[in-house]
Write a structure and sequence with these properties.
The protein has 416 residues and is of the alpha/beta class. It has 19 helices and 14 strands. Strand 8, helix 12 and strand 9 form a beta-alpha-beta unit.
Length: 416
């Protein structure tokens, strides 16, 4: 079978991959995250060969990192339920995905993805022999795509978003445009992405929507109990601030210290010990860390700091309102995990790249604030006005319900 990529282009592409790998191996000597990225791939092909028995019927899912995994997770779990005879292989590009989900029970095998060198990609596909390969959102590794095509493997791209400034729509993006033809179906999140692809002659595209709506809807239906949070809240009103950074916490302090009768839960995006200690010292009503809360008198603590991972999405169910962090920096984090519980949201000003944030504002479920003063004014108003809080919460929940269904659209195609 003739390769779809021009040999001259692949020479330069493979040169770039070798530079990336070489640079990473050098940087690994002083960067712990990159060290994990490199060490996680040591003897990778041998470990994959030992783990996967000959003759297994394997479906390969690949995610760049944790966010992309969460986007693909509903499809993984739906496929597993529909076809328990198939084995799920999950790979990650980044340590931030692999290290957190390496013990994910929804997959039979979890590994890093091999470096995208032609010989490694071919060897990996020869070992795994996947019946299907599913790439999530943004992953376009040309050597692996070509190896899958040569092996005759049905390959899909799910939860994809394309923007006009992407490489596919640039004069020099020919190789990546050709890569799009290797997918049996490209499932995109919105109509704008479909129109961009059809504009360059890509017809194997389906608008499925965003699988995250299915994921968060399932989370809210599961109603996970967290006794510590329930006891901490008691009979008080409570705000949950998720995935916060320093500027978010600075903005929140005014609302916290002006409302001692209201409880707050803050889940920092990163466990910066100095920042957590500084924040706790400035809270007048007292603060406690989640992992150190056994035996604490919660009547004497206004704020709980979540210093563990994996429970934020369930904590939102106890909130009367939520604040989503990141909007005073590079961009806000996941708004849908909170919205699914039918509560009003607020976040910082940097939200323009996030479709769901704009739509939540448009339907009256969310508010963007640009300062501590604006946040405090919104907070005081929404907490004192039961009817406004109810309407905003209903709008948030309705938004989630109306956007469900992407998982079943994708699953139906995978099962053909």
């Amino acid at each position: 079978m003739r390769a779809i990529f021009k040999p001259r282009v692949m020479v330069w592409y493979n040169f770039g991959i070798n530079v990336l790998v070489g640079g990473a191996r050098l940087a690994a000597h002083w960067n712990p995250k990159i060290q994990k990225w490199v060490e996680g791939r040591r003897d990778l092909l041998s470990r994959v060969r030992q783990a996967i028995p000959e003759g297994e019927r394997v479906v390969w899912f690949h995610a760049a990192s944790l966010g992309e995994f969460e986007q693909g997770r509903p499809v993984i779990e739906a496929l597993r339920a529909a076809r328990p005879d198939l084995k799920i292989l999950l790979t990650f590009f980044s340590p931030s995905g692999y290290e957190i989900r390496k013990n994910y029970s929804g997959a039979d095998y979890v590994f890093y993805m091999p470096f995208d060198k032609p010989e490694m990609a071919k060897a990996f596909i020869d070992i795994v022999k996947p019946e299907m390969a599913v790439f999530i959102k943004y992953e376009f590794w040309l050597n692996h795509i070509e190896a899958l095509r040569q092996a005759g493997c049905r390959t899909f791209l799910i939860s994809a978003i394309f923007r006009p400034n992407s490489i596919f729509f640039r004069p020099w993006g020919g190789a990546f445009r050709r890569a799009l033809t290797a997918y049996r179906t490209i499932f995109v999140q919105n109509k704008a992405s479909e129109e961009l692809l059809r504009g360059i002659g890509v017809e194997n595209v389906v608008v499925a929507g965003d699988t995250r709506f299915d994921r968060v809807a399932a989370l809210s239906e599961a109603m996970t109990d967290i006794a510590t949070i329930e006891q901490f809240k008691g009979d008080h009103q409570m705000m949950v601030a998720g995935s916060t950074w320093g500027p978010d916490e600075e903005a929140l302090l005014e609302s916290i210290n002006r409302n001692p009768e209201i409880k707050f839960v803050i889940a920092p995006h990163e466990m910066d010990e100095n920042r957590i200690a500084s924040l706790m010292s400035r809270i007048k009503g007292g603060a406690v860390r989640y992992t150190q809360s056994d035996g604490v008198d919660f009547d004497k603590c206004q704020v709980m700091i979540i210093d563990t991972i994996g429970i934020l999405s369930a904590i939102y169910r106890y909130a009367d309102v939520a604040y989503i962090g990141g909007g005073f920096g590079v961009g806000i984090h996941n708004t849908l995990e909170a919205a699914t519980y039918g509560i009003p949201l607020a976040f910082g000003p940097n939200y323009k790249k996030f479709r769901e944030a704009k739509e939540l504002i448009a339907c009256g479920a969310a508010r963007s604030v640009s300062s501590a003063t604006e946040l405090s004014a919104w907070f005081d108003g929404i907490m004192s006005d039961t009817e406004s809080r109810r309407k905003a919460g209903e709008a948030a929940h309705r938004y989630i319900v109306e956007n469900k269904g992407a998982t079943q659209t994708i699953l139906a195609e995978l099962l053909k």
